[in-house]
Each structure stands twice: as structure tokens, then as C-alpha cells.
Amino acid sequence: MHDNLSFKREKIKFEENKELSGLTFFNSRGNARMFAEPENITELREALGYANEKKLRVITLASGTHTLLSDSYLDALVLSTKKLKGITVKGSLITAMAGESLDDVINIAIEHNLMGLEELGGIPGSVAAAIKINAKSQNVEISEFHFYTDTMTRDGKIHRKPDYLDFFNSKKKLIDEDEIIISTTLRLREGKRTAEARIKKERFIELMFIPPCNNFIGCVFKDTNEYKASALIKECGLTGDKGLRCEFSSFESNCLFSYPSCPAEDVKKLIDLAIKTVKEKKGIDLELSVSLEL
User: Fold this and answer.
1) Within a 13 Å sphere around the CA of 41, how many CA atoms are in the beta-carbon half?
2) Cα–Cα dist 60/82, whole Å
3) What tens digit of pLDDT does each residue of 118-151 get?
4) Sign of CA dihedral 7, 9, 10, 12
5) Half-sphere exposure of 203 toward its Cβ, with a 13 Å CA cutoff?
6) What are phi and psi of 170, to 5 degrees?
7) Using CA atoms, how far apart are residues 255 and 135, in angstroms rounded to an integer?
8) What percent of the chain stands above pLDDT 90?
9) Handedness of CA 128, 132, 134, 135 (dihedral sign)
10) pTM here?
11) Among 67, 133, 132, 124, residue whose Cα is nearest residue 101
């Protein structure tokens, strides 16, 4: 195998033995057998076709805020949707491609007098990740505005997930394991107070805890109607030093951040410790909101 070998397969570029550093908020020191970054739906379909042809596992990334990659070799196609870009507004609906940042979507919404997302300001990552984990602040969840999401399965077919199927409040999964989010459409409230909305958004950005190291994952575990994961983590005394190069934030306990040179294995150990401790002390099985690709 040749290091960093790049080649073209029709339109999309594939990179072999791709170094993964810089692709996620936790800087992996590993590499992947193949890497591709499609810029449109045709290229995405082509990349999935290639993975099927080579019988490769597919790992999907957007901004990498909710994925922990291995520090060693991944025998997989790592597929970045970061370049799937585009935002359109029609009436009270705003549609964003998977690679658009949630912050940019909020800004465009405010410019078009569409309200509701301001309290999600400052949450890092793509709109696809926000939908996948149901990004939330103290008072708002993005699922409240979900109208539909379009996904692609490994066979190249596109599927629409409308809000009336109530994925977020049932045991149904919005995104199956073999699906990749293409775009999502949100239905917002029409209003005129754009200056007020922008100020509100900026206030929540300031309140959002972002460690100086910038190596962090927010919403490590899912909340339910019965409990908030952050409260369970704090009550179980899981914040602070555990002898690892990462920790849960004392400010927002469901946010995990790492120090320089923190190995992926340390992050996995801390997540496993939280799952075990909460089960033993509270009798509750925490459910991961992040993807562990180790």
C-alpha cells in the first residue's frame, strides 16, 4: 500500500491510506484505508457504489463533532459530507445540505425573519449532526422544528423521513446504520424581530461552554423523558480527574473534552466508566449519542 496515494474514479476523488488527523474534534492519529469527500449527490452515490464493490465498511463524518475515530488503522471508507453544501428558504421552510453548519443555518434563518433556532446558537457541528443527535439547549430541541430529512442508503436510493412519523418521540430511528443524511428541512416561525433574535443567539453562544483546547464532544449521551444524562453524570461524581487525559465538564456534565495527546482509548475508557457507574448507582442504561469508530 502506498502512503497518501490519490486517484480519480470517474468524478470523485478517493484517497488511500488517509491520515485522519484534523477530521474530528478529537484528533485521531490513525488512518483509513480509503477516504472520499463528495460534493454532490451523484458523487455520494458513486462513493457508496465503490464501497459496495470493494465490500468496505463506511464511516460517515461531517464536521466530526460527534465521532471518535481510532488512533490506529481503520479498514473502511471514511466518507466526509462536509462539502455537501447549500441552503434554500421557501416561506417558513429552510432546507440545508448535510455539510452546512448549524450556526450558518441559524444565521440564514434570522436573515429571512425565521425564528426558533436562536437558543441553539454556539452548538458546534453540522446540521446533519444536530438532527442525528437531536441537538438541544435548555429550552429548545431541533426536533421541534423538524419537517423532513432526506437520506441515502448504501444502494444509492434516496429516502424521505417526514416529521409525522414522530421519530424523535418513539423508538423508531430517524437514521438507520446504513443511511447517510443528505439534507434536512426545518419549519420555523415567521417573525420580524431579527435584531432581537440575533442578540438572543449571541447570548447563547457566550453561554455555550467551549474548552480552549477545542477537543470536545457535546451531548455524549442521549436525554430521555425520564432523565437528563448531564444530571446523572454529575450526581455520580464523574466530573473531574479520573486519571485519564480527558474529562466530563463540571459546567455541562454531558460534554467531554480532552487534553493534548489524549488517545482515543482514554475517551472510550471514560465513556465506559460513565455507563458502568450510572448503571450501578442509578440502575439506568445510558444510551450513546456519539459514534465510536474504534
Assistant:
1) 14
2) 10
3) 888 878 889 999 998 888 876 889 999 999 999 9
4) negative
5) 10
6) -140, 180
7) 13
8) 57
9) negative
10) 0.85
11) 124
